[in-house]
Structure formats: structure tokens, C-alpha cells
């Protein structure tokens, strides 16, 4: 009788661990080449679905989401614009609130133009790293907060490609610190 109880406990623990992993992690196969040169077609990505349980996506993160139109597969893209921001693409650069961002990770600069557009509340402007070969937000749609499945975490297949997915920050968009703001006000008042 004691042996059955111990086996039952082990099975319950295994089921609980399996359920926890299914809720927090999930694997995806990358379809197409929209994230070149950083993520290749056919690579398998592990997504952390728990990343956004208590926080929102940040600019520069690579996310997995259900696209706003009919698709057999979820999409993988990089978050570029946040809700309420104005995004524009011109002269081979992406501008956030009129500030050009540095994108050293992209395959090549975009060969297209996009007029300024304000990102709606709870929506994210997402672009593929392969800017000229990606179905992404420059085509007139955004990723809703509710459609986001998780944050791309690492490449786990093929084994020779194992690596963490690179997420980027954009220091040129950082808000000035309180001291910098005070210094600016003091400098302005002196002149």
C-alpha cells in the first residue's frame, strides 16, 4: 500500500512539473527569414511565456505572437515602438518620436518609407530584423498586447546554433535623468 502511495506522489509531482512547464515555456519553429541575420529559418526557439505575466514587452525584445491576420504560424518579431509613440521610417532609418534609433543588428537598412503613425494603446510596433523581407508593422498593422505569447529566450535546435536570443536597448531614447533635467533647466535659465 505504501508503494502505491509513493508512486502516486511521484506521478502527481511529474504532472505538476509538466503543467508548470507548459504554462511558462513553449518551443516554436521559425518560419521564413524575417529575423535574419540573428535568427534563421528552421531554427527552434524556446519562448518564455511567463515573461509578460506581470510586465509588458520592452523595446528591443524579440517576441512570439499571434498575428492580427490569418496565419498558420505565430510570428516572431522585434518590438520597436511602444503604445502611444510615433514611429516613422525614412532615409533607411526608424524614428521613434522623431529620434533615429541605432540598429546595428539588422541585415540591411529598410528600402521603404513609412509616414509617421501613432501606436494605439495596448499595441506594439514590431519589425523583423530582415527589414526588406518581413511581413511586419510597416505594412499597417501592430501586435496587440493580448496576442503576445512570450519572449523569445534561446535557440535550442540545431545544437550547433544554441544561443540566447539577443535583445537590444536603445540608449538614444533614454529619458534624461532628473539631474540632467535640472542641469538643462539651470543652463537655460542662465542664458
Spell out the key features of this protein.
single chain, 191 residues, alpha+beta, Umud Fragment, subunit A, eight-stranded antiparallel sheet, four-stranded antiparallel sheet, 2 helices, 12 strands
Task: Describe this protein's structure.
It contains 2 helices and 12 strands. It has helices at 2-24, 178-190; strands at 25-29, 44-48, 62-65, 75-81, 86-90, 93-96, 99-100, 114-118, 123-127, 143-144, 148-157, 163-164. Mean pLDDT is 88; it is low at 177-191. It is elongated, with a radius of gyration of 21 Å. It is 19% helix and 29% strand. The strands form 2 sheets. Strands 1, 2, 3, 4, 9, 10, 11 and 12 form an 8-stranded antiparallel β-sheet that branches. It has a 4-stranded antiparallel β-sheet with strand order 7-6-5-8, with no helix packed on it. It is α+β, with helices and mostly antiparallel strands. It has one domain (30-168): Umud Fragment, subunit A. The longest helix has 23 residues, at 2-24. A hairpin with a 2-residue loop joins β5 and β6.
Amino acid at each position: 500500500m505504501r508503494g502505491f502511495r509513493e508512486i502516486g506522489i511521484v506521478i502527481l509531482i511529474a504532472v505538476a512539473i509538466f503543467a508548470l512547464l507548459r504554462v511558462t515555456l513553449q518551443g516554436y519553429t521559425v518560419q521564413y527569414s524575417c529575423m535574419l541575420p540573428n535568427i534563421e529559418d528552421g531554427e527552434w526557439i524556446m519562448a518564455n511565456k511567463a515573461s509578460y505575466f506581470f510586465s509588458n514587452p520592452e523595446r528591443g525584445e524579440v517576441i512570439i505572437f499571434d498575428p492580427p491576420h490569418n496565419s498558420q504560424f505565430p510570428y516572431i518579431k522585434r518590438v520597436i515602438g511602444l503604445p502611444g509613440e510615433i514611429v516613422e521610417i525614412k532615409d533607411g532609418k526608424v524614428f521613434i518620436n522623431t529620434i533615429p534609433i541605432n540598429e546595428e543588428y539588422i541585415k540591411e537598412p529598410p528600402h521603404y518609407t513609412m509616414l509617421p503613425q501613432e501606436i494605439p494603446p495596448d499595441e506594439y510596433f514590431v519589425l523583423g530584423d530582415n527589414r526588406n523581407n518581413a511581413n511586419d508593422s510597416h505594412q499597417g498593422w501592430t501586435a496587440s498586447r493580448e496576442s503576445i505569447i512570450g519572449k523569445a529566450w534561446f535557440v535550442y535546435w540545431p545544437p550547433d546554433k544554441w544561443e540566447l536570443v539577443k535583445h537590444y536597448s536603445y540608449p538614444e531614447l533614454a529619458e534624461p535623468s532628473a539631474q540632467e533635467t535640472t542641469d538643462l533647466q539651470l543652463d537655460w535659465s542662465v542664458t
